[in-house]
């Protein structure tokens, strides 16, 4: 059963006779494949290529098709390597202590035949089906937020990172990288969209949500809350636990070689300008977007009041911190009762900060409503996947059209009952199965499918009840793998959460697909991923994955505190962060790949 349909792709007018002659000679060849191969396709944000709205029942109120008008760069000879990790990757210089970064060796593409054998000659036969970019775990951080638990740094490296004050500058540099890409690097296909796979924010804070939406859609961002004149976080607290970049005191990070950078904190709070993506983009929700701290069930007014208030805890006895984090890891405090009690008992040791209403947590409905705000539309679509129906039904999952040949399905894998691991409610699981069946019932077998979620299959083990739906069961990763494997239209499940590159082959009795998990953009190596799908016309499909870094240079200059200079520091500091794990980059087979699948 073939799902490939001929798609007319807009081409630029040929500029010389050789191109016209080649075009005439190729009249019997699939036109889309030929145009991509010869470089006649305008390779950028889907020039002349209309994205259709979602095909689910929610599409009735969905956005109109998106047509872009941004002029494309000159079409590349494909495949190309520049601007991707196929060309160069940031790498450390030296062997010990604080290490500076520079240009390092590329990561080559690895062909994986776990699910099907790669057949010779496919390069000359293949037809591009779709191409998109995945962002995941941006973790745009309000570093002065009262609910942050930096004092747990000794227990987990994710509690506080030396680089996190620069998260907005780093994310904007990633947007700049995508805007500069010359189409898809393996097939030459136009890039159709960007899809985020959750943890777009860090503290479930309205200020962070505004920063994320402006980063993606364009605008000026002031990454500061509280006192507009000065920084009020842990990095000028005088506590040795944290790196103090602006003074010469010997903190724990300077003991490891971290530099003194005069003016760092002032620069980190300066306005950042984002050009916005030159592509349509779609949003998926993660646990840090849905839950305070990414792990405690919402709804307690104490946390809401504390978030906007004027007190912040910056240090904690290590034994108390260890007990709290153990409870979080084991899922013993999903409602945050232990966390609440700790904050109350430490009230006298808290420091004064400037209250700020913008730090208030946002509800799922407010998350959807913010995406629907025309001020954040950018290159669209309106709502970035979410619709008025999502708002009315209280859901955060939907389907959308990536290309004529490929349907995207975005899931909400967060568990409203609390804890940082995920699952799907029974209603969403039923909806997912209906979407897959409805797609395959269409003439010609329907479209291929790519599923998106925040959590990976291995981190969907949290089956707590949804407080809003107490009678509804929850479904974990193994059940979702089984469901997806029963549908031959599913080619891939793309996700994040683990902050690590990992690609897993899933073979089930009924079918097979690839699970593509991508590293975060807050922890080194700070990556995003281009995903391309192509029909090899030999009974197989190729799924290409190519990792990209931000546009910031690998080398840093401590005197350069411009927006670009800060984005470069963001990467270097993340490499040197105590507790950083080089293994997050994954093995070669988890990075730049060609993944082979049998056609369903």
In short:
Helices cover 23% and strands 16% of the residues. It is α/β, with parallel strands linked by helices and 600 residues long.
- Summarize the main sheet: 7 strands, mixed
Spatial arrangement of strands, main beta sheet: 3-21-20-19-4-5-8
Note the beta-strand portion: 15-25%
Please give the alpha-carbon distance between the first and last residues: 6 Å
| Helix fraction bin | 10-25%
Number of helices: 15
The tally of strands reads: 21
Poorly predicted tracts of residues: 4-76
Please state the overall shape, judged from the principal axes of the Cα atoms.
globular
Secondary-structure class: alpha/beta
SSE layout and pairing:
Blueprint (H helix, E strand, L loop, with lengths): L16 H9 L5 H8 L50 E4 L8 E4 L5 E3 L9 H4 L1 E9 L31 H14 L12 E4 L9 H12 L1 E3 L42 H5 L3 E3 L6 E2 L4 H4 L10 H8 L2 E2 L5 H12 L7 H9 L5 E2 L11 H9 L15 H6 L4 E4 L4 E5 L13 E2 H15 L7 E5 L21 E2 L1 H9 L4 E6 L6 E6 L4 E6 L10 E8 L4 E9 L14 H14 L16 E6 L2
Parallel strand pairs: 3-21, 4-5, 5-8, 12-14, 14-16, 16-18
Antiparallel strand pairs: 1-2, 4-19, 6-7, 9-10, 11-12, 13-15, 17-18, 19-20, 20-21
Helix pairs in contact: 4-5, 4-15
């Amino acid at each position: 059963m073939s799902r490939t349909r001929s798609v007319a792709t807009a081409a630029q007018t040929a500029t010389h006779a050789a191109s016209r002659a080649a075009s005439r000679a190729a009249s019997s060849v699939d036109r889309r494949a030929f145009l991509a191969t010869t470089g006649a396709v305008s390779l950028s944000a889907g020039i002349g290529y209309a994205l259709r709205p979602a095909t689910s029942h929610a599409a009735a109120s969905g956005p109109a098709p998106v047509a872009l008008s941004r002029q494309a760069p000159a079409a590349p000879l494909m495949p190309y390597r520049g601007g991707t990790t196929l060309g160069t990757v940031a790498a450390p210089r030296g062997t010990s202590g604080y290490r500076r970064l520079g240009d390092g060796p590329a990561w080559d593409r690895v062909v994986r035949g776990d699910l099907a054998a790669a057949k010779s000659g496919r390069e000359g036969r293949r037809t591009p089906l779709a191409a998109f970019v995945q962002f995941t775990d941006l973790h745009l951080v309000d570093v002065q937020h009262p609910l942050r638990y930096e004092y747990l740094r000794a227990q987990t490296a994710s509690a506080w990172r030396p680089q996190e004050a620069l998260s907005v500058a780093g994310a904007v540099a990633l947007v700049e990288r995508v805007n500069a890409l010359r189409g898809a690097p393996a097939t030459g296909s136009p890039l159709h969209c960007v899809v985020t796979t959750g943890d777009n924010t860090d503290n479930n804070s309205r200020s962070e949500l505004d920063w994320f939406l402006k980063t993606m859609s364009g605008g000026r961002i002031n990454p500061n809350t509280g006192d507009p004149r000065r920084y009020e976080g842990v990095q000028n607290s005088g506590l040795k636990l944290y790196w103090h970049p602006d003074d010469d005191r010997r903190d724990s990070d300077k003991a490891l070689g971290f530099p003194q950078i005069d003016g760092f904190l002032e620069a980190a709070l300066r306005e950042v300008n984002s050009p916005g993506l030159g592509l349509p983009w779609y949003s998926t929700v993660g646990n840090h977007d849905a839950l305070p701290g990414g792990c405690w069930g919402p709804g307690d007014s104490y946390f809401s009041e504390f978030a906007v208030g004027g007190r912040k805890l910056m240090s904690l006895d290590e034994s108390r911190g260890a007990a709290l984090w153990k409870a979080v890891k084991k899922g013993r405090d999903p409602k945050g009762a232990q966390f609440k009690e700790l904050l109350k008992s430490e009230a006298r040791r808290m420091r004064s900060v400037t209250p700020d209403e913008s730090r208030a947590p946002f509800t799922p409905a407010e998350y959807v409503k913010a995406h629907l705000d025309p001020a954040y539309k950018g290159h669209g679509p309106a709502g970035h996947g979410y619709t008025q129906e999502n708002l009315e039904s209280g859901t955060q999952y939907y389907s959308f059209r990536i290309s004529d040949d490929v349907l995207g399905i975005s899931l909400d894998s967060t568990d409203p009952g609390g804890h940082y691991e995920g699952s799907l409610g029974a209603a969403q699981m039923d909806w997912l199965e209906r979407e897959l069946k409805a797609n395959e019932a269409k003439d010609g077998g329907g479209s291929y499918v790519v599923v998106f979620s925040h959590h990976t299959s291995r981190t969907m083990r949290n089956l707590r009840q949804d407080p809003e739906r107490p009678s509804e069961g929850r479904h974990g990763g193994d059940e979702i793998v089984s469901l997806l494997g029963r549908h031959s239209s599913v080619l891939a499940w793309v996700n994040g959460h683990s902050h690590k590159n990992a690609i897993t082959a899933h073979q089930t009795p009924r079918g097979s697909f690839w699970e593509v998990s991508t590293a975060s953009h807050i922890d080194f190596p700070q990556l995003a991923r281009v995903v391309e799908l192509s029909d090899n016309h030999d009974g197989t499909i190729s799924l290409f994955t190519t990792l990209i870094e931000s546009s910031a240079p690998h080398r840093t200059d401590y005197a350069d505190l411009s927006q670009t200079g800060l984005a470069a520091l963001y990467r270097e500091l993340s490499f040197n962060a105590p507790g950083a794990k080089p293994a997050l980059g994954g093995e070669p087979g988890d990075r730049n790949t060609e993944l082979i699948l049998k056609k369903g």
